[in-house]
Each structure stands twice: as structure tokens, then as C-alpha cells.
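Quick one: structure for this chain?
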Amino acid sequence: MTALAAMTTTHDYALVLNAGSSSLKFCVYGRPALEAWRLESRGQIEGIGTTPRLTANDADGNSLDQQSLDAAAVRDGGAALDVLASWLRGRYGGARVLGVGHRVVHGGARYAGPTLVTPRVMKDLRELVPLAPLHQPYNLGAIDAVAERLPGVPQVACFDTSFHRGQPAVAEVVPLPRDIRDRGVQRYGFHGLSYEYIASVLPQVAPEIARGRVIVAHLGSGTSLCALKDGRSLDSTLGFTALDGLCMGTRPGALDPGVVLYLFQGLGLSPKDVEAILYKKSGLLALSGISNDMRDLLAIKNDGHGEPAARLAVDYFVYRAAREIGGLAAVLQGVDALVFTAGIGENSAEIRRRICEASAWLGIDLDTDANERKAPRISRPGSRVSAWVIPTNEELMIARHTAAVLGLVAARA
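Got it. Here's what it folds into:
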């Protein structure tokens, strides 16, 4: 019996998994007796295949565990799941797993909301792997691994594309021949779980803008913007795949399609070569020639020597973000607030400052002290357009969707 299967008697638990190429993020939601679901722990196994390490915290952020793992033993996602299962058994031995929720990046045209995983669903989602090669294989690999270890436990797929369904037709359409569009070629948008969470907490965190025109900047290794009106997505910068829009860690963002034609026709590159360039060798990494991590580039840019390539990468990142903010302001016919979230958005005061300064024409008056302190509101009281920092919580959205699909009591943070 596996460690996951051994969690079987005293308490009920639901797991949330967010599997990537080198990391496995997890949350454990518990329900003692007939109480409501509550967050018990969250953490991740990172550095899978290289220098794996497990970290876990309780609901209040207190450390539960930190340990380095054997690289030879944790070579892939399945092995990481076994490590997680063993850790769960040690902490929650005797518990029963009622369901597992997963982040799945691409749901395609068929899946407009969270869905119970079935063989047919998995077949459909595997067909979308070419549209999200950095994420989809690992998302589905985690589902396969759980199915092997817990064959009787239901699983729910929660899609990054779902929140954007229902946008106006002009925001979704791709101007290509109808026979191509009929095969599912359209703009889908991504980071939907993050945007859905932000929309869900605005009434509590910033009620004055919750029903208004809001641009949310999800800035991380993957970056995008979303235009919200009354909490609904009207448009976003990512499209058919997660390559569009803003400059990202290793992805270029918006690119003239003729460049891709030239890679094939002019340079004679293979489809695999082009895929590797677009998904793994572009963006901040390509511009800087140093790193895909904004923290590294800011440290180099500010170290007194001013490495020009690092400076260019940062400058371009800010330029593209400000340019796209202007475009979404036009979509919304004005803007009431700008919200920063995700790794860079939540943690880099410099990037927030520079984007706000580049967008000052919209009416953003940044409060530099509040920005440095990462206060929830970082604009001055009289600012015509307010600016905010709101941490995202994709795992909580997955937990909520999983509970709803399986008919369980909704989870809370």
C-alpha cells in the first residue's frame, strides 16, 4: 500500500497539486469531523531532477519541515509524489483522501470550467500538450501518478483558461480562415486561476474597485495582464498559447509571425528547434544572456557596474508591460485600478515602481513608501487610478473548485 493510500481513518483531507517541470506545489485541506474545510499545510518539492528540496508550512506560515532530498531518488514528478506521500503519511497518518484537485494549464475549447477527470478527459487534454509544452505534460503526469497510487479517489482538473471563457467574440477570435478557427484556434488566455482568485477577494480587500475597471498584472516567470470589469475577464494578453503578450522568463511574448516563418524557411530550423527557442531560450534569458530570473537581473543591473544586457532585459520587460496596460485601458474604456500579483508583482518594488511611473499618464500617483513596504494599496489617496499589491492563491481556487465539483463543503484559506 502506498503512503497516500495509507491516509485512511480519522480525518478527511483534500489535496491540491500544482505540478511543473521541476517542482510540485501542494496544499492539504482538512475537515475534522463535520467541520468546514480549512488549510492545514502547504509547501513544495522544488529542484526535481537536480537539487530536490522539500519545504512545508502550516496555515499561518510557520515552518513544518525543510529538508534536502536525494537527487538520484527524486528524478521526476512521480518520485516527487512518492516523497510527498511519505511526508503526508508521517504527518497525517490515518487520514482519508476524499479528492485531489490539479492545476491544468490548457482546457481548450471543450472545457470551460473545472471537471471531474475521466479517461475521455485525459485523452482530450493530452491533445493540447503541443499548445502548452512547458506545463501540460507535467500537469497530466501528476494526475496519472495519483490515479496509479489512489485509483479510487476522484480527481478534478482546474484550468487556467476557464476564467476567460465568455469574453466578447472580438477578444477571442483569431483572424484566420474559418476551417482553421473551427479546429479550436482562438485566443484562450491563461493564468485564469490567479485572476479568478484576485477577482474573488477584491470585494474584501479593495471594495471600492471590485465592481470597476481593473487591470491585473500577473508578473512571474510567466507574465500576463487581464482586464476585469465587475470581476469578469474582458481580455488578456495571452492568447492561443502561453507565448503571447508580455516578455517572460524564457518566452518572448508578442512576436511577429513572420519571425517564426523565417526561423523555418530562412534558417532551416526544425519544429523542435523552434519550439525550444520560443519556450525555453527567449524572453529575459535571451535579452540578458545571463538569467531568466528577474531577481538576478535586478541585482546585476543595480550592482554599480550596470551590465547593459541585464539593463536592456529589465527595460524591455517594463516597456512591454506598460504598453499592454495602455491597450487594456482602451479595452476597458478607462481604468480604475492596477493590481500587481505573482512572484515579481508581489515582491519587486522596483518593477512595480517603474511600471506605475510608465503608466502615470493614466492617473496613477505612486506612494513610494507604501510601495517599498508592499502595502496593499501603493498609490496615494488622491490618485485617480489606484494601485494595489494583492498576493495570489491559485491553490485555494483549485481547492474551492474541487470541493464544488465533488459536492464537498467549500474550502477556505
